[in-house]
Amino acid sequence: MKKLINDPSDVVDEMLDGMVAAYPNRLRRLEGMEVLVREDAPVEGKVGIVSGGGSGHEPTHAGYIGDGMLDGAAAGEVFTSPTADQLHAMVEACDGGEGVLCVVKNYEGDVMNFDTAAEMADMEGVEVEQVVVDDDVAVEDSLYTSGRRGVAGTILVHKAAGAKAAGGGDLGEVKAVAEKVVENVGTMGTALTSCVTPEKGEPTFDLGEDEIELGIGIHGEPGTQRTEMMSADEITEHLAGRVLDDLDLDEGRQVLTIVNGMGGTPLMELFVVNRRLQELMGEEGLETWDAWVGDYMTSLDMMGCSITVCAVDEELKELLGAPADTPALTVTE
Amino acid sequence: MKKLINDPSDVVDEMLDGMVAAYPNRLRRLEGMEVLVREDAPVEGKVGIVSGGGSGHEPTHAGYIGDGMLDGAAAGEVFTSPTADQLHAMVEACDGGEGVLCVVKNYEGDVMNFDTAAEMADMEGVEVEQVVVDDDVAVEDSLYTSGRRGVAGTILVHKAAGAKAAGGGDLGEVKAVAEKVVENVGTMGTALTSCVTPEKGEPTFDLGEDEIELGIGIHGEPGTQRTEMMSADEITEHLAGRVLDDLDLDEGRQVLTIVNGMGGTPLMELFVVNRRLQELMGEEGLETWDAWVGDYMTSLDMMGCSITVCAVDEELKELLGAPADTPALTVTE
Fold this sequence. Notes:
Two copies of one chain form a homodimer.
Chain A: H1 11-22, E1 27-29, E2 35-38, E3 48-55, E4 72-78, H2 84-93, E5 100-105, H3 108-123, E6 128-133, H4 154-166, H5 171-184, E7 185-191, E8 211-214, E9 225-228, H6 232-247, E10 254-261, H7 267-283, E11 287-294, E12 304-312, H8 314-320, E13 324-325, E14 330-331
Helix pairs in contact in A: 2-3, 4-5, 6-7
């Protein structure tokens, strides 16, 4: 499988340099680390918001560094957790004196290394809190997790926590809104093709020309169910149905929806999915307050998408709709 | 080849409805037409800026509708020019009394149909001007064009003309800045894979596992040269070298660069390309004023990228850096 890369072992390092080269006034790389932070980090007097995880999910997470979202993002090797040392360095670099919230996708390696990093920072007097995101409704436990996986709903946690911190919230308040998003968000995804990692150079699972996987994760693991190819409408109904079953929302609730591309799917197809998704929201008696469509959390070159639904109240609408200015997501007043 | 679609013949129609469903406060579909316009079109007292072309290049063009860029975009069937009737309806809908500039990518069908639409509008008293974009340095003439093709540099024409119009420029002034971009921009692309159209369902050209195409267009046509797979750095050097040869810029010139994904290439790889591209700009004695990395003008699910370089002066920097607020591109002050 062909890729626009040089030596596969350099891909994360070169990607990070390429990001800084694109946004030199916004992003800064910590010396010798696979960590990007705001160019002006730490922001004194503001709670720092950081995240991180394996690479291969771009623009997650570094694309969300900027005003109103993240202060820092650590990038592990492809589909591999960042080390505790890297996470620790990030937390230190993003502490502006008001403490740091770590937004952690629920994978065992990520959780363990963020825990260790938090302990290290704590010993140096940095106040650290964590929120673990587990929005994937497809699984109870999975290949890499105890409990559900953290997937595209994580971006909404970045957004709400980032807005709360930008507005002057203290660490406890910022953590509380992050947890509120986690309690109100669900996601489920499908793959039309496997992804191909740079190191391996071939698909991580085989899938026939008339088959798809439902309930996929974002690390090339197969889904919970293999089925025959379906139409975009049928796939949308299946994914959204599972998410809505899990959320069990009262009629009339307002929601934010995301149709998220997995990296190899044209935007055209994501809009075709969004069309049916918004019809469905109406049929279910829900009101879409905002609809996001695009590649927010990818799995390299995988074709497919995930659907996220997040129930919103006045507080979450204010935070999710607040201004943000990052390479991958901009919200204007 | 699997796609997230329903009936292939409905894909453009359903995509457009899905876009409006995502941005109901920003976009409006003209009744019975495959045309999207600003929700508040026409903007009285402002020159209208419109574009259009075949579908399959999303977010081009409708993703650029909004403050500071386009007022309307017409979507033909996949890789097929919009009809003159559709273009005419768009021009009419976007005329706020100051005339309309049509930004046309150089393809025979597009140019012909925009010409006809302009004549129709002119007969009704709407002042219409056109600028034809032909930034692809790979070809002199091509399968679908007399002269060079219009590709990703077109987005910079939307941006500069849109900013000039938003700032109160008259039709002549807006056309002049659009032409200034055209004179100063060049692009060249490569394909690692062919794209697959919804109707055909299989690759439009065959390419071996160790081959790539250089000098591709955006309609699934093969490139001008087939070569062995190269590293990202080698590909970057080749593409950028051809563009810079064409532009022949004096040392010290400031430029805006775009690394544009063709639809199926992960963002990770585009940043790897950008890393080498920015090194090269330095080696060539050029100064990057701004660097864009992402999927701006795609070719369905094609893997590959194009590199655009646009020489900028004070006027173009002011216009390209002016605020814009569209689904696919937001520039903040």
